[in-house]
């Protein structure tokens, strides 16, 4: 092959790379943060759904070529020592102006379900519901039997006799189960982007450095609120949150004091009279026991 032919053939490739480099450099200038996510082994449907979800949240995700993205980082001054170790395998980059924690929290809430493949690890319990599978009797019956799923043939279809658990979290999906789940049109495997590193304030950090356990912090806030409320109540601090309860407590204590002291306050009179009546009846009963003629 002549040099001229090589030049003509390689020129479009160089043009595409130059265009990609310019595009990525533009995103790096436009957005404050970037996050590198591994997409190795992720089905195209999951990548597409993730991209759509992030776009709806005001961010952008692009599948990148590692070498070109590295050049873009150097061109825009967003290169950080050590970023190369995260640019291995197949990657996508999320560009965003939002706090990275918001993006992690957002992605964590999104459940993208896909079809099971042989060798997958079940992410949750997989249950086949009782009823008509729509699968005609034939070779598939042996799959049902091998997986221990009770069936019957009815109306020209295989019916599952009762709800059956076919996999628990952590179980490996067998080829037979993967085939059956596909035939049933079920998508039981939860799949999501795995964030590898985040560019934050001029350095790259691990996702665990910005992730928060929301349930843990929620419990801490509830506990702190309860402790603060108890402190204010027991110290009789006149705060709006505790004033109604403090006034109610003071009213009950004042009423009890007036009643015990037989102070004829209008609010205490019913209790004082009731107490006096009870004491008079008790005295009468004791006297009557001594002198029945009374």
Automatic annotation (TrEMBL):
Keyword Isomerase: no
Any single Gene Ontology cellular-component annotation: cytosolic large ribosomal subunit
Domain Large ribosomal subunit protein uL10-like insertion: 116-185
GO BP: cytoplasmic translation; ribosomal large subunit assembly
Top-rank lineage group of the source organism: Archaea
Gene3D superfamilies (UniProt xref): 3.30.70.1730, 3.90.105.20, 6.10.140.760
InterPro entries: Ribosomal_protein_uL10 (IPR050323), Ribosomal_uL10 (IPR001790), Ribosomal_uL10-like_insert (IPR040637), Ribosomal_uL10-like_insert_sf (IPR043164), Ribosomal_uL10-like_sf (IPR043141), Ribosomal_uL10_arc (IPR022909)
Example of a GO MF term: large ribosomal subunit rRNA binding
Alphabetic keyword roster: Ribonucleoprotein, Ribosomal protein, RNA-binding, rRNA-binding
Role description: Forms part of the ribosomal stalk, playing a central role in the interaction of the ribosome with GTP-bound translation factors.
UniProt record similarity statement: Belongs to the universal ribosomal protein uL10 family.
Subunit text: Part of the 50S ribosomal subunit. Forms part of the ribosomal stalk which helps the ribosome interact with GTP-bound translation factors. Forms a heptameric L10(L12)2(L12)2(L12)2 complex, where L10 forms an elongated spine to which the L12 dimers bind in a sequential fashion.
Identification of the protein by name: Large ribosomal subunit protein uL10
Organism listed in the record: Thermofilum pendens (strain DSM 2475 / Hrk 5)
Gene: rpl10
């Amino acid at each position: 092959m002549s040099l001229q032919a090589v030049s003509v053939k390689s020129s479009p490739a160089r043009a595409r790379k130059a265009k990609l480099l310019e595009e990525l450099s533009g995103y790096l200038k436009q957005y404050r943060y970037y996050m590198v996510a591994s997409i190795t082994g992720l089905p195209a449907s999951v990548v597409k759904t993730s991209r759509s979800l992030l776009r709806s949240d005001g961010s952008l995700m692009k599948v990148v070529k590692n070498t070109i993205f590295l050049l873009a980082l150097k061109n825009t001054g967003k290169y950080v020592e050590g970023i190369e170790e995260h640019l291995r395998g197949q990657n996508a980059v999320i560009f965003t102006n939002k706090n990275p924690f918001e993006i992690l929290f957002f992605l964590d809430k999104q459940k993208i379900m896909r079809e099971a493949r042989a060798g997958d690890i079940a992410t949750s319990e997989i249950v086949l519901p009782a009823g008509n599978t729509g699968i005609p009797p034939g070779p598939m019956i042996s799959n049902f039997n091998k997986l221990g799923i009770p069936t019957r043939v009815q109306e020209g279809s295989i019916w599952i006799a009762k709800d059956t658990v076919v996999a628990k979290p952590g179980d490996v999906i067998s080829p037979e189960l993967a085939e059956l789940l596909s035939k049933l049109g079920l998508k039981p495997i939860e799949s999501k982007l795995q964030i590898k590193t985040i560019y934050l304030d001029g350095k790259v950090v691990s996702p665990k450095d910005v992730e928060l356990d929301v349930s843990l912090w929620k419990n801490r806030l509830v506990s702190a609120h309860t402790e603060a409320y108890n402190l204010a109540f027991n110290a009789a601090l006149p705060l709006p949150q505790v004033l109604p309860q403090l006034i109610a407590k003071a009213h009950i204590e004042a009423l009890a004091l007036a009643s015990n002291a037989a102070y004829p306050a209008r609010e205490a009179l019913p209790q004082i009279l009731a107490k006096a009546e009870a004491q008079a009846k008790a005295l009468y009963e004791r006297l009557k026991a001594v002198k029945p003629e009374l």
